C-alpha cells in the first residue's frame, strides 16, 4: 500500500515536471515569436513613417532576384537609374556564397544586371556565375539584362548552355536617337549588335528578350515592324522612372528629368503597339517596388521612398533578416506578371 502511494506521488511529480517543461517550451516559442514580430531588427531599423505589412515581411521569399553585381558601365544613357556610384564587385566565391544563401531561401530565378554585366573580367565573372546558378544550384531560370555591346560569340559557346534568357536593352530603332539617349559607345552601332545577338541567341538556344525605356526621345516612335522582325519571347516596355540619388536630386550622377514622360504619353505608346502580343508594359507604379534588387554588396535596395535605401548585406545577416528591408511588394510583383514561364526548357521555342 505504502509502495502504491509512493509510486503514485512519484508519477504525479513526473507528470507535473512534464507539464512544466511543455509549458516552458510554449512560453519560449511564444516569447521568441513576439520578439521577432514586435521587437525584431525589421521593425527597429525601418524608418517610423514607413507602413509595413508584417505578413508580407515575414513570408517574403526571394523567388525572383535581380543581382546588380557591378555599377560600372561603358554606356552613358541619360536616364540610367543604376549608376556608377562605386566600382566595387564582390570576389567570385563571395558572390557564389550569397547566391547559395538565396537558393536556400527559395530563389527560383536569378537575373544578372548592372551597370553592364559583361564588362567585369570581360564577361568571365558573369559566365562563371551563370554556370554556377544553372549547374550547381540548379535554378529553374537564369537570365541577364545587358546593353549588348560587349558580348562575344565565344561567350555563347562557353556559357550559352547555362543561360535561359538574355534581354538586350534597345530604346530606339533609329541610331541617332540611341546616340541622343547615350545608349552608345564611340563608333559602336547599337542596332547592329542587337541583330547579331538575336541571331546568336537562336543559334545557341537562349531565349531572346528586349527591354525598352520609353522617354521623351522615343515616345512617338513606332517600333512594331522591328519588334515583329526580331520576334523576342518578351518585350518589356518601361516608363522612364526617376530614382532620387541615382538619376534625380543632388547626389545623383544623372539628371533624367528631361527624359520623363506622362502616363498619357506612355499609354499612347502602348496603344500604338497593341498588336504585339509579347509586349509587357511597366508603368512607374508597377515598377517601383515589384523587383527584389540586390546591389554590388548583396544588399537589398528599398525603392519605396523614391530612392534606393540599402539593407544589410545578406552575406552578413542572412537573407531572412535582409529581405525585411527590401520594400518588396509581392502583390505588385505578381500583378506585373513577374512570374511567367522562365525556364527555356518550358518555352515552346522554334530554335
Ligand atoms: C540599369 S540597366 C543594367 C543592364 C544594362 N546595362 C542595360 O542597360 O540593359 C537594367 C535595365 O534598366 C533599364 N533602365 C535604366 N534606367 C531606367 C529608367 N530610368 N527607367 C526605366 N528603366 C530604366 C535599362 O534600360 C535596362 O533595361
Ligand atoms: S541603362 Fe545605360 S548607362 Fe545604365 S547601366 Fe544600362 S547601358 Fe549602362
Automatic annotation (TrEMBL):
Coiled coil spans: none
Domain Radical SAM core: 59-279
Gene Ontology CC terms, in alphabetical order: endoplasmic reticulum membrane; lipid droplet; mitochondrion
Cofactor(s) demanded: [4Fe-4S] cluster
InterPro entries: Aldolase_TIM, Elp3/MiaA/NifB-like_rSAM, RSAD2, RSAD2/Viperin_antiviral, rSAM, rSAM_sf
Subcellular location field: Endoplasmic reticulum membrane
One Gene Ontology term from the biological process aspect of the record: innate immune response
Entry's Gene Ontology molecular function annotations: 4 iron, 4 sulfur cluster binding; catalytic activity; metal ion binding
Similarity comment text for this entry: Belongs to the radical SAM superfamily. RSAD2 family.
PANTHER family: RADICAL S-ADENOSYL METHIONINE DOMAIN-CONTAINING PROTEIN 2, S-ADENOSYLMETHIONINE-DEPENDENT NUCLEOTIDE DEHYDRATASE RSAD2
NCBIfam families: viperin (TIGR04278), viperin_w_prok (NF038283)
UniProt name for this protein: S-adenosylmethionine-dependent nucleotide dehydratase RSAD2
